[in-house]
Amino acid sequence: MVTLVQQIKSAFCIVSVANVDNGVQITWKDGHESFYHNLWLRDTCHCPECFQRDTLSLNSGEGEGHDPLKMPLNPIIEEVKCDREGNLDIIWGGEEPGHHSVFDPSWLRVHCQKDPTLKQGRKPQLWDASLSIPHFDYQEVMQDDDALLLWLEKMLELGVVIIDNFPKNKAGFQALIERVGLIQQRYHPTHIFTLDTANKLAGNIHHAYQYMERLHNHTDHVSYKVPPRLQFLGCIEYNNPDNDRQAYSTLVDGFKIAEVLRRQQPKFFDLLTQEYVPTGRRRLGVEEKVSDREKGTKKYQWETYHRQRVINLDENGEVYQIRHHEKDRVPLDVSPDKIQDLYAAYQAFTTLAESPEYNVEFLIAPGQVLVNDNWRLLHGRTAIRNPQLRRVLLGAYMKPETFRSRRRFLLGEKSGMSDIWLMGCSDRALEILADRTTL
Ligand SMILES: [Fe+2]
Fold first, then answer.
1. What's the gap in Å between 219 CA and the centre of ligand 1?
2. Over pLDDT 90: what percentage of the chain?
3. How many A from CA of 109 to the centre of ligand 1?
4. How do residues 120-160 score in pLDDT, each as one tens digit?
5. Mean pLDDT highest for which of 55-59, 208-212, 302-306, 425-429?
6. Which of 87, 95, 170, 373 is most buried, by CB atoms within 10 Å?
7. Dist. CA 360 → ligand 1 center (Å)
8. How far is the CA of 279 from the centre of ligand 1 (A)?
């Protein structure tokens, strides 16, 4: 069977070109045909006059190649051909006689506007309680770019991985996160925080530190306009005298339970995608010292509110983000005729989020780092009944663009293409360009 990627790879070879209807028609080796408007081709010219190769940006201004006010709306092609290296080669005529553009065929193919596969994102693999979480080795992801890319691919596919054998200290934890990118600056005084069951005062700061209770599945920082994307939780110590499942982590695939709701109770699904369930947080002058290992305390103020929806859809109607935190809810912003239905929908979602059918329950063991996608997964913790139980976790977050940027760089490197063509490709285009070199 010929896979999509193989089809596209073979399609990177141009078989014929023709100048038709104000554009260029290309026939590819796989028989696919693409059409590029002359203005689009002229506007994307990568010649040194139009495109700054050192800064990787357009020359865009008075007297420069891409001055939009000077760009002819009907550029005329004098000559078009496929050159000896397989590139599309255009000599322009009309108002710009002799202007010369050369286009990489792979780049052209991943910008074909008539190929619907280029518009489709990679589908996440939805899971339930039967999930087995993928594991990666710390040293391997630290040293090997292929392992790092594989890890980041799993974050999109499943939304969760466990990294084994991390040095059980802050420096080792930080190094792992920075292998992907910058740690997200928090609004709290600490960017890497410590969850330590021995710190009894911490419960005054946040409910997540009230260890005797089960911490229900939730996503973090729902009251931020843009919640953190990746959450890192690294275990330094776990000592449980009862040797049972206290302080175990729980995870549920938010995309999965949203789809279950869409199928089983479409009216509830629609309500949670359309109506607002606002969230907020207010702390004034709180002293944050969540671990004895942290020296001193700093006071900070923090006050947020977000008129958020629980299930968020993209332009194709696909779920791209879940925001759900029961304890961070503030008064509902809903008309009286809808409140009962909205509340019933919220109850249905919350029930699914706690359902054993969709929950995985496991221990983050000392030396392991759990990494989860906070836009997709809901996380929680089983209760701690025994006050003698000691658990110490390090935690930190990463912004969506930081994660995405590293993955784009890694895909670009794997593609083997030069910076001038990688710059400005969509994520989907980079995935296809990267895959094509592995065949
Ligand atoms: Fe949390």
1. 6
2. 76
3. 43
4. 778 999 999 999 999 999 999 999 999 999 999 999 999 99
5. 425-429
6. 373
7. 16
8. 14
CATH 3.60.130.10 in the chain, residues?
135-398
Spacing, Cα 141 to ligand 1 middle (Å): 25
pLDDT tens-digit readout, 264-301: 999 999 999 999 999 998 876 555 554 555 555 556 67
Ligand 1 centroid to Cα of residue 289, in Å, is 17
How many alpha carbons lie under 13 Å from residue 395 in its C-beta half-sphere? 20
In sequence order, the 6+-apart residues with CB closer than 8 A to the CB of 229 are 373, 374, 375, 397, 398, 399, 400, 402, 403, 404
248: CA distance to ligand 1 center in Å?
A: 13
Distance 351 CA to ligand 1 centre (A): 18
In this prediction, residues 296-322 reach a mean pLDDT of 87
Amino acid at 362: F
Do residues 422 and 430 make contact, with C-beta atoms less than 8 angstroms apart? Answer: yes
Q: How far is the CA of 208 from the centre of ligand 1 (A)?
A: 7
CATH number of 135-398: 3.60.130.10
Where does the chain hold its CATH 3.30.2020.30 domain(s)?
A: 4-119+411-436
Q: What is the pTM of this model?
A: 0.91
Sort strands 88-92 and 77-82 into parallel, antiparallel or unpaired.
Answer: antiparallel
The encoded tokens of residue 360 equal 């995985």
Cα distance between residue 436 and residue 157, in whole Å: 20
CATH of domain 4-119+411-436: 3.30.2020.30
